[in-house]
C-alpha cells in the first residue's frame, strides 16, 4: 500500500509540475476559435449528387420549365441554369467520402424555398455573362421567396433538414448553412409578372411583400405595405457609383431600415439553426450596413453563443472587407478574397513566385480582427474555377492546408473538375455519384487527402502562429507554432512548387531537437540546421513537440502575440 501511495503521490507531483511548467511558458496562438480545426468542403447542393430522383420535379414550371436548361458554349462544354437533381440525400450519402478526404465541415447552399419557374426578365445569359438571369432558375438557393420553407428539391420523404444535420454529425461533419440577408428573388423586368418572383411569404404562407414587377424607384412603401420590405433605390452601375449603393441585378433589395425585415430573417434563420447548424456563411454581407449585421449576429448568438460565421464581401481590398470582422460591426470572419487573388496567380497559369503571398497574409499589422480565422480559398461558384494544371492544384492544396486560415474547397476541386470554367460555362456543373466514386483515381486526390488529413491531426497547422522563413520563387518555408495549455507544437513546412526536386536548407528560427517527419517515417535530429530534398510539387512537414526555446523564433512569436493584443485593444475602442 505504501508503494502504491508513493507511486500515486509521484504521479500527482509530476502532473502538478507539468501543469506549472505549462502555465509559466508564454502563449503562442493564432486563434482559439474551435471552428479553426475544420477544413470546409463547399457544395452547391443541387449540383453535387442526386441521391433521390423522386424530388427532381422535372415537370415543374410549365412553359418556364425549371429542370435541365443547358447554356450552349462554343467549345461544346455547356453550362446549365436549371435544376439538376442534387439534394440532401446526395450529400448525406457521401458524408464518409467528404470526411475521409480530410474535411471536418460541409458548407451547403441556401435551403430556403425558391421560385417554381425560370425567370423571364433580366438580360440574356451567355457562357461569359455575369449578373444576367434570363431563363435561369433558383437551383442555387439564393432567390428566397419563403425563408421559413424548404425548397422542395432538397428533402426526401425520409430526410428533412434536421435529419441531414443529424446524419452529417454522425459522420463527424459540421454543417455550415449559407444564408442571405440582403435580397430575395429577381423582382422586376419581367415581360409579364410571374408568380413568386419579387414576393416574400411568411411561415404560414401569407404574402407579406411584393415588388409587383416594378423597378425599385417606382415602389411606394409609404402607401403600399407590400412595398415596405424593399428599398426603392434604383440600380447604380459602375459609372455612377458603387454597385453597393443600389440593387444587385434585378433582385428584390431588402429595406434595412424596416424592423420587420430583421425580425423576419432572424426568425427564419433561428428556425434552421435550431435544427443542428454549426456555422453560418453570410451571402453578400457588403450589401447591408455594419449596424444591421451587428444586430443580426447578436440576435443569432443570443440563441447560439459563440456560433462561428463568415461573410462574403466580394472585394479584393483587405481594408474594406476587414471591417466586417471588427467587434463593433458584424464581428464575423470573412472569405479571404485578397489572398484568393494571389493564390490564383501563384498556382494558376501565371505561376508567380511564393513572394506574391507575403503581403495578403497580413500576419502583422493588418486590418483584420484576426487573420488566422479568415476563410482561405482559391475559387468558388461566383468566379471562374482555378485555371491550373494538376500540379498547380496539388501545390495550392499544400499551401491551403498548412498556411494560416481555415481552408475552403469547392466541390470537385479534388479532381480539377471544370477547371477555368466560369459560372455559366460549367463552373456549377453537375458532379454526380460516378465522379465521386472515380475521384480517388485523380492525381490531385491523393496528395490533397494526405495534406488535409495531416492538418486534421496537427493542432499547430490548425491554429498556430505563422512565422515566415522564406517565400521566394518556387520555395516556401514557414513555421506554425501552437503553445497553449498542455500543447506545445512547432510545425516546419517546406513547399516546393517547382517542376524538379529541390534541396532545402533551414537554419533560421530552427530549434535543436528531434523533429519527426509528419508525412513520412522516422525523425531528424537537429543541432544547427536541417537539410531536406522536397520532390517536385511536394511538401514536407516536420514536427517538434516541445516548448519554444529558440530565441530568434521566440522574438518573432512575441511580435505576433503583441500584434494580436494591439489589434484587440484598437478594435475595442
TrEMBL record:
Protein name: Alpha-amylase family glycosyl hydrolase
Endpoints of the signal sequence: 1-22
InterPro entries: GH (IPR017853), GH13_cat_dom (IPR006047)
GO terms assigned for molecular function: hydrolase activity
Cofactor names: Ca(2+)
Residues in Glycosyl hydrolase family 13 catalytic domain copies: 42-439
This protein's record includes keyword Metal-binding: yes
Domain of life: Bacteria
Keyword Metal-binding: yes
Taxonomic source organism: Stenotrophomonas oahuensis
Amino acid at each position: 500500500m505504501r508503494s502504491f501511495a508513493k507511486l500515486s503521490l509521484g504521479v500527482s507531483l509530476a502532473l502538478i509540475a507539468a501543469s506549472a511548467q505549462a502555465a509559466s511558458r508564454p502563449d503562442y496562438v493564432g486563434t482559439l476559435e474551435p471552428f479553426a480545426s475544420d477544413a470546409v468542403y463547399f457544395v452547391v447542393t443541387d449540383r453535387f449528387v442526386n441521391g433521390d430522383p423522386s424530388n427532381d420535379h422535372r415537370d415543374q414550371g410549365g412553359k418556364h420549365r425549371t429542370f435541365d436548361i443547358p447554356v450552349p458554349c462554343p467549345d461544346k462544354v455547356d453550362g446549365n441554369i436549371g435544376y439538376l437533381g442534387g439534394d440532401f440525400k446526395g450529400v448525406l450519402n457521401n458524408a464518409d467520402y467528404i470526411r475521409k478526404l480530410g474535411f471536418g465541415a460541409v458548407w451547403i447552399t441556401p435551403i430556403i424555398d425558391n421560385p417554381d419557374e425560370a425567370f423571364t426578365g433580366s438580360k440574356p445569359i451567355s457562357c461569359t455573362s455575369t449578373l444576367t438571369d434570363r431563363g435561369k432558375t433558383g437551383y442555387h438557393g439564393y432567390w428566397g421567396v419563403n425563408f421559413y420553407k424548404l425548397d422542395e428539391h432538397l428533402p426526401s420523404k425520409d430526410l428533412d433538414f434536421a435529419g441531414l444535420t443529424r446524419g452529417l454529425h454522425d459522420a463527424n461533419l459540421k454543417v455550415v448553412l449559407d444564408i442571405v440577408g440582403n435580397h430575395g428573388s429577381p423582382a422586376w423586368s419581367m415581360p409579364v409578372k410571374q408568380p413568386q418572383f419579387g414576393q416574400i411569404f411568411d411561415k404560414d404562407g401569407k404574402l407579406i411583400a411584393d415588388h409587383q414587377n416594378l423597378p425599385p424607384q417606382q415602389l411606394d412603401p409609404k402607401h403600399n405595405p407590400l412595398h415596405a420590405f424593399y428599398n426603392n433605390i434604383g440600380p447604380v452601375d459602375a459609372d455612377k457609383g458603387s454597385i453597393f449603393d443600389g440593387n444587385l441585378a434585378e433582385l428584390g433589395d431588402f429595406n434595412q431600415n424596416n424592423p420587420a425585415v430583421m425580425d423576419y430573417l432572424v426568425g427564419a434563420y433561428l428556425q434552421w439553426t435550431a435544427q443542428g447548424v454549426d456555422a453560418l456563411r453570410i451571402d453578400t454581407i457588403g450589401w447591408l450596413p455594419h449596424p444591421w449585421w451587428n444586430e443580426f449576429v447578436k440576435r443569432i448568438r443570443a440563441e447560439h453563443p459563440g456560433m462561428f460565421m463568415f461573410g462574403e464581401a466580394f472585394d479584393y481590398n483587405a481594408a474594406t472587407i476587414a471591417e466586417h470582422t471588427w467587434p463593433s460591426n458584424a464581428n464575423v470572419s470573412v472569405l479571404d478574397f485578397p489572398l484568393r487573388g494571389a493564390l490564383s496567380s501563384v498556382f494558376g497559369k501565371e505561376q508567380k513566385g511564393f513572394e506574391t503571398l507575403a503581403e495578403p497574409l497580413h500576419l502583422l499589422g493588418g486590418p483584420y480582427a484576426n487573420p488566422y480565422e479568415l476563410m482561405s480559398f482559391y475559387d468558388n461558384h461566383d468566379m471562374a474555377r482555378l485555371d491550373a494544371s494538376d500540379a498547380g492544384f496539388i501545390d495550392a492544396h499544400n499551401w491551403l492546408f498548412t498556411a494560416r486560415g481555415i481552408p475552403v474547397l469547392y466541390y470537385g476541386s479534388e479532381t480539377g473538375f471544370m477547371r477555368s470554367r466560369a459560372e455559366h460555362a460549367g463552373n456549377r456543373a453537375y458532379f454526380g455519384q460516378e465522379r465521386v466514386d472515380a475521384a480517388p483515381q485523380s492525381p490531385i486526390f491523393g496528395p490533397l487527402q494526405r495534406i488535409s488529413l495531416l492538418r486534421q491531426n496537427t493542432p499547430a497547422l490548425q491554429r498556430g502562429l505563422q512565422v515566415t522563413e522564406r517565400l521566394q520563387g518556387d520555395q516556401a518555408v514557414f513555421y506554425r507554432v501552437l503553445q497553449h495549455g498542455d500543447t506545445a507544437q512547432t510545425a516546419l513546412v517546406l513547399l516546393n512548387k517547382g517542376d524538379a526536386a529541390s534541396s532545402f536548407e533551414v537554419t533560421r528560427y530552427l530549434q535543436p531537437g528531434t523533429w519527426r517527419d509528419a508525412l513520412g517515417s522516422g525523425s531528424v535530429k537537429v543541432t544547427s540546421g536541417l537539410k531536406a530534398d522536397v520532390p517536385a510539387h511536394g511538401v514536407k512537414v516536420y514536427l517538434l513537440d516541445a516548448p519554444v526555446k529558440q530565441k530568434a523564433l521566440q522574438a518573432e512569436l512575441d511580435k505576433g502575440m503583441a500584434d494580436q493584443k494591439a489589434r484587440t485593444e484598437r478594435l475595442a475602442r
